[in-house]
Each structure stands twice: as structure tokens, then as C-alpha cells.
Write a structure and sequence with these properties.
Elements: H1 3-25, E1 37-42, E2 64-66, E3 81-87, E4 91-99, E5 123-129, E6 137-143, E7 149-155, E8 162-163, E9 171-177, E10 182-190, E11 205-214, E12 223-226, E13 244-249
Length: 250
């Protein structure tokens, strides 16, 4: 069994054990099937993203690494992706470091406006749920290697479920290193735009998943990666019960 396959099996077993424990205690079972965790560490002051991950602030971050397919045990070492998070009381930061072979982006588009269908080319994505009890309601942030972007409020109980009119006012920046075949991304997301009451505090726990779309061609040829494996028959990232945990620590 591959490492990716083993990870999926562990997550399924963990979810089953959690459900059994909930039954014993009389509590309703959690709808979430993933117990993967990432840590976001507190920093002393805010900064403006510039795509440079060599800044000292990122050296203290807890990084996660993934190269496995979102929906199967397949892995793509040529698309290995690292992600990390930091926070202040007013903002959550995310960083991505992405290996690539060939970039596949939309050219000649207005970078000052969000771009619909950005996901049809190379992109990193954060799906973030500050209110885990509202499983079907979360926020989506996408950035392409050339810094095109889109942010969406998602409510799977509505039709349409994605509100492109929502504006988080998040900041983002990217950098492409053609020689090393790596591109990087930084995001700064204000917590106030996501319905969070008051400043973010240490000890808070949200739900999250990191995604990446990579490679040329149509969807049958492109690579779709996720940090927490997606459990669905529909081949969609919009499976919030598969989100892992993000814990905000000092």
C-alpha cells in the first residue's frame, strides 16, 4: 500500500473510532471524517504579502507537505506542495510552496478583479470554515501562479452555492522561480469578513483543506491534490466533511 493509501485508511479508521466514541458518550457523531491537523502560529505584527517565503516569519511556521491525489491513492512528486499558516488577532496568513513542470495559467487578465473559472488552470486553494458546526458553509480562496485570484462564500444548502459577489478583501502575492521550477504564494485573509465575532484568539479551532490544481490539458490530464483526502464519488473539492483541523496557537 502506498503512503497516500495508508493515510486514507488511517483517516477512515480515526473517523470510525470517533463515531463509536460519540455513540458511547451519547453525543451526536461528528460529520467530519478527517482528523488531520495543522497548526497556525501567532505572530507579533501584520505584514503585507509579497510572495517571498524566505522571510524569517515563515521559519517559525509549522509546514505540511502533500503530493497525493485528492480522490485516489495516486501521488505526484512533480507537484509536491507545502503549506503553512500564521495569524494575528485580525488576520490569518497562508503560504504555499509549489513544485511544477509546466505552468498553465490564464494570460492577459485583469489582476485587480476576481476571475471566474480560475480553477480551470494552475491554482492553490484554501477552503476555510471558521464555524465548523455549520458544515456546509465556508469560504474559498484561490490564487494562480501569476497572482490572478478569486474569493467565494460557499453555502452548499443554497443554489447557486458559490457567491462570487462576496469580497473578503484578502491580499495575496506570488513569485515564480523558473530555474528551480517552484512557485510560491502568500495570502493574508481578514477574519472580520468571515463572520468571526471579535478578534481571533489562541485555542480557536476551525476546519480547513488545502488544494492544488496543476498541469496542462483538460481535467482528465490535470493533477488535483489535497492535504486532507477527499471522500466523495463526485470528484469535487466541495466535500466539507473531509476538511481537516487548523488550530491557532501562541
Amino acid at each position: 500500500m502506498s503512503n497516500s493509501g495508508a493515510a486514507v485508511l488511517i483517516i477512515l479508521c480515526a473517523g470510525s473510532l470517533a463515531a463509536q466514541a460519540a455513540q458511547i458518550s451519547g453525543a451526536p457523531p461528528s460529520p467530519y471524517v478527517s482528523n488531520l491537523q495543522t497548526i497556525s502560529k501567532l505572530i507579533s505584527k501584520d505584514f503585507v504579502p509579497d510572495g517571498n517565503l524566505e522571510k524569517g516569519v515563515w521559519r517559525q511556521a509549522s509546514w505540511v507537505k502533500f503530493d497525493h491525489d485528492a480522490f485516489s491513492p495516486a501521488s505526484y512528486p512533480q507537484s509536491e506542495t507545502e503549506a503553512a499558516s500564521l495569524w494575528t488577532p485580525t488576520s490569518v496568513y497562508f503560504a504555499f510552496r509549489c513544485r511544477f513542470t509546466t505552468l498553465n495559467v490564464f494570460e492577459g487578465k485583469d489582476r485587480t478583479k476576481d476571475f471566474w473559472t480560475l480553477w480551470d488552470r494552475d491554482v492553490v486553494e484554501v477552503f476555510l470554515n471558521p464555524q465548523p458546526e455549520r458544515v456546509n458553509h465556508y469560504y474559498e480562496f484561490e490564487v494562480a501562479p501569476n497572482n490572478l485570484w478569486i474569493d467565494l462564500e460557499i453555502d452548499l444548502d443554497k443554489n447557486p452555492f458559490n457567491d462570487a459577489g462576496w469580497d473578503s478583501h484578502f491580499q495575496h502575492s506570488t513569485h515564480i522561480d523558473a530555474q528551480k521550477h517552484t512557485w510560491t504564494c502568500e495570502m493574508r485573509i481578514p477574519v472580520s469578513g468571515m463572520g468571526v465575532s471579535g478578534p481571533l484568539q489562541a485555542g480557536s479551532t476551525w476546519r480547513i483543506n488545502f488544494y492544488r490544481a496543476d498541469g496542462p490539458g483538460d481535467d482528465s490530464q490535470r493533477r488535483f491534490l489535497s492535504w486532507s483526502p477527499v471522500h466523495t464519488q463526485k470528484h469535487t473539492f466541495h466535500t466539507p466533511t473531509s476538511f481537516g483541523l487548523i488550530r491557532f496557537s501562541k
